[in-house]
Amino acid sequence: DVKVTQSSRYLVKRTGEKVFLECVQDMDHENMFWYRQDPGLGLRLIYFSYDVKMKEKGDIPEGYSVSREKKERFSLILESASTNQTSMYLCASSPGGFSYEQYFGPGTRLTVT
Amino acid sequence: GENVEQHPSTLSVQEGDSAVIKCTYSDSASNYFPWYKQELGKGPQLIIDIRSNVGEKKDQRIAVTLNKTAKHFSLHITETQPEDSAVYFCAASIPGAGSYQLTFGKGTKLSVIP
Question: Would you call B2 an interface residue with chain A, using a CB distance cutoff of 8 Å?
């Protein structure tokens, strides 16, 4: 089974802190994604990566950056956390090639106070 | 870019009844349409998908239909059970070199009443 793990299930940070959310997949997938999920807004793409050291902006990249130094790991960085970044963050991976299926991690509930 | 609209936002059905969730998309180039189920406390999981060269696909109690002309697709769940209660998301993808993005609908919370 494909497994996507996220470093924390729950995280509480203060405004202005630098926050790192880590995601690891164990199936040698090419593509990785970061979404945020808010009630009534569905899943919105923040950033994605289709190769090591490659990254592309999604629909809502402002206030975020990402890092993919190794194929299995994709990190989301909040340079200076703000209260409007309180949300559920979901990481996903997909094999690439002819497969578009995305496999999701369990999510990190981030609260910024 | 692609825009996906999903309706209804909430749906309650009696156990054993059918449930239908509908989605429309804006970009006629989209050719892949998955449906994800998200149970409480978990990440979304793919339950069925369809490509634009197929009009209908079925997997046991779940079916998806696609109308390319009208740019809409639907999820049908028959003989609903309490374990079908979850949030369902539709999505669409536009093919392209290196592009594996999915644009998601806002979700439908399905409640199956025993």
Answer: no
Query: Are A89 and A35 spatial neighbours (Cβ–Cβ below 8 Å)?
Result: yes
B35 touches B88 (CB < 8 A)? yes
User: What is the rounded distance in angstroms from the CA atom of residue B2 to the CA atom of residue B26?
Assistant: 6
Q: Tens digit of pLDDT for each residue in B7-40?
A: 999 999 999 999 999 999 999 989 899 999 999 9
Strands (E) across A17-86 are located at 19-25, 31-38, 42-49, 56-57, 64-70, 73-78
List pLDDT tens digits, range A30-70.
999 999 999 989 999 999 998 898 899 999 999 999 999 99
Residues belonging to chain A with any Cβ–Cβ distance to chain B shorter than 8 Å: 4, 31, 33, 40-45, 48, 50, 58-59, 90, 92, 94, 96, 100-107
Strands A56-57 and A64-70: unpaired
Q: Which residues in chain A have Cβ-Cβ distances shorter than 8 Å to B42?
A: 106-107
